Every structure is written in structure tokens, then in C-alpha cells.
């Protein structure tokens, strides 16, 4: 498994910024405001406050690039460190965000997803407790039609009973209209459930 050695916030892009031309692979995290994108990044990297989170939706308002240095365990002859970026995106679908801000972020997210040369996959986060929203479906379809590879992560898995897990995952798959080969996993930033599985997926995209 991939081991995270070091991580730092390297670049922050606002609506008027140019996105950096990175030379390492990028994985981006998209989803509704408050679904747990920034928390997932912290959980994955075992850092409590690297990405800023909030109980109030609308916390992340910029495109944030976290550069990660990691070690790969196998094969042994390739044990050199590798670098990749986790890209935290602003959330969508938050009603209280002003129209003016929403009008800016939508295109910013879209521009990033359309233009990044290093983007290997888009991780779409949805809340495991609920049906995906119309916005989630739109985002999923958009990722696919933009030719990007989606991975769907159902967050806040600690908030449901284990016995409900499979049912909720099946429902998400159905409601998003996911193809069979698209990866879907349950995740909890509280218990770190799903962390190893997600790190293995990340490893697949960066090697
Ligand atoms: N119980 C539980 N709470 C979570 C989990 N993930 C996130 N949260 C909580 O959900 C709230 C929102 O988390 P964030 O990580 O800030 O959400 P975000 O998707 O980055 O939100 P925006 O930046 O507004 O788009 C916070 O109060 C987190 O503590 C989880 O797996 N389990
Ligand atoms: Mg956030």
C-alpha cells in the first residue's frame, strides 16, 4: 500500500488565478458543500487540520492543491518516493451562497476539470445517507461526458448502521446511473473506514 510521507498546501487558486501546470498526477474531489471533501483529504493524509473544514456549508471557496509525497511498497525495485496532488474543490448546491459567488465558482470548477493536463480522476463525494441530488447526477454525468474517470465515494458512513451500508451503496449506484466498472466505496473521516481502499485506488492512478 501507498504510504503518505508528507503533505502540504502548495497552491490556492481563486476565480481570477491561473491554474498551475503541475508535473505530478492530480486527483480532484468534487461534491456538494458540506459532504466532507476537505475532511476526507485530512483523513486520507492523517492530518487533522491541513484542509480547512466547517460544520457550515460553503467553507472551501478556492481550488486548493495539496502536494503529497508518498512511498510505494511494491515492486521493491521501484521504491522511490512519488508525488501527487489532491485537489480540493469548492462545493456546489449550497442555497445560501450568493448568486454572484455561485456564478463564479461553477465556471471555476468546470474550467479546472476541463483544462488540467495532470488530472487522472475525479472523486465525486455523495452523502451515504441520502439519495444523490439532481446536482450530484449532473456532476456525475458531466465528469463522464468530459472524458474524465469518476470514482464515487459515499461519505459519512459512520452515520448509518452497518446493516444499511450495502443498500445505500446500491441506491447511489442506481440513482447516479453508474456504469458497472466505476468504483464506489463507503468512507468515514471519523472512523477512517475506506481509507486503505481509497489509498489503493489513488495508487492505481499515480503509477
Ligand atoms: N460524522 C461525520 N462527519 C463528517 C464526515 N466528513 C465530514 N464530516 C463533517 O461534515 C462537515 C463538513 O465537512 P467538510 O469537510 O468541511 O465538507 P466540504 O465538502 O469540504 O464542504 P465545503 O468546503 O463547504 O464544500 C464538518 O462538520 C465535518 O466534520 C464523516 O465522515 N463523518
Ligand atoms: Mg471543503
Provide the CATH superfamily. Answer: P-loop containing nucleotide triphosphate hydrolases
Q: What general outline do the C-alpha atoms trace? A: globular
Judging by the overall fold, what is the CATH architecture? 3-Layer(aba) Sandwich
In order across it, which strands form the biggest sheet? 1-3-4-2-5-6-7
Total DSSP helices: 5
CATH topology: Rossmann fold
The run of helices and strands is EEHEEHEHEHEH
Measured by DSSP, the beta-strand proportion falls in: 25-35%
Query: What is the CATH C level class, in words?
Result: Alpha Beta
Distance between the first and last residues' Cα? 12 Å
Ligands and ions found: guanosine-5'-triphosphate, magnesium ion
- Classify the secondary structure makeup into a structural class: alpha/beta
Q: Helix content range of the residues, please?
A: 25-40%
Major β-sheet profile: 7 strands, mixed
Give a quick summary of the entry.
The protein is α/β, with parallel strands linked by helices.
List the helices and strands and how they pair.
Blueprint: E1 3-13, E2 26-31, H1 37-45, E3 63-71, E4 81-88, H2 99-115, E5 119-127, H3 134-145, E6 150-155, H4 165-176, E7 183-186, H5 195-206
The chain binds guanosine-5'-triphosphate and magnesium ion.
Magnesium ion binds next to helix 1.
Main attributes?
5 helices; 207 residues; seven-stranded mixed beta sheet; binds guanosine-5'-triphosphate; binds magnesium ion; alpha/beta
Describe the fold and architecture.
By secondary structure, this protein is of the alpha/beta class. It has one domain (3-206): Rossmann fold, CATH 3.40.50.300. It is built from five helices and seven strands. It has a seven-stranded mixed sheet, with helices on both faces. The longest helix is centred in the middle third of the chain and has 17 residues, at 99-115. 36% of the residues are buried. It binds guanosine-5'-triphosphate (GTP) and magnesium ion. Guanosine-5'-triphosphate (GTP) binds at residues 31, 33-39, 53-55, 57-60, 90-91, 155-156, 158-159, 188-190. The site of guanosine-5'-triphosphate has 24 residues, from α1.
Amino acid at each position: 500500500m501507498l504510504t503518505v510521507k508528507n503533505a502540504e498546501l502548495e497552491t490556492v487558486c481563486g476565480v481570477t488565478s491561473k491554474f498551475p501546470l503541475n508535473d505530478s498526477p492530480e486527483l480532484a474531489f468534487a461534491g456538494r458543500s458540506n459532504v466532507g471533501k476537505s475532511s476526507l483529504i485530512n483523513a486520507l493524509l492523517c492530518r487533522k487540520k491541513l484542509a480547512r473544514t466547517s460544520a457550515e456549508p460553503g467553507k472551501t471557496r478556492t481550488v486548493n492543491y495539496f502536494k503529497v509525497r508518498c512511498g510505494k511498497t511494491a515492486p521493491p525495485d521501484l521504491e522511490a518516493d512519488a508525488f501527487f496532488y489532491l485537489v480540493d474543490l469548492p462545493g456546489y448546491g449550497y442555497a445560501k451562497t450568493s448568486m454572484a459567488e455561485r456564478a463564479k465558482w461553477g465556471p471555476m470548477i468546470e474550467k479546472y476539470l476541463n483544462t488540467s493536463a495532470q488530472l487522472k480522476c475525479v472523486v465525486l463525494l455523495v452523502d451515504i445517507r441520502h439519495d444523490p441530488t439532481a446536482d450530484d447526477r449532473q456532476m456525475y454525468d458531466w465528469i463522464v461526458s468530459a472524458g474524465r474517470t469518476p470514482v464515487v465515494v459515499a461519505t459519512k458512513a459512520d452515520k448509518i448502521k452497518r446493516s444499511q451500508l450495502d443498500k445505500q451503496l446500491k441506491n447511489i449506484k442506481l440513482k447516479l446511473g453508474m456504469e458497472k466498472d466505476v468504483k464506489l466505496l463507503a468512507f468515514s473521516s471519523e472512523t477512517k473506514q475506506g481509507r486503505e481502499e481509497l489509498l489503493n485506488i489513488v495508487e492505481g492512478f499515480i503509477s
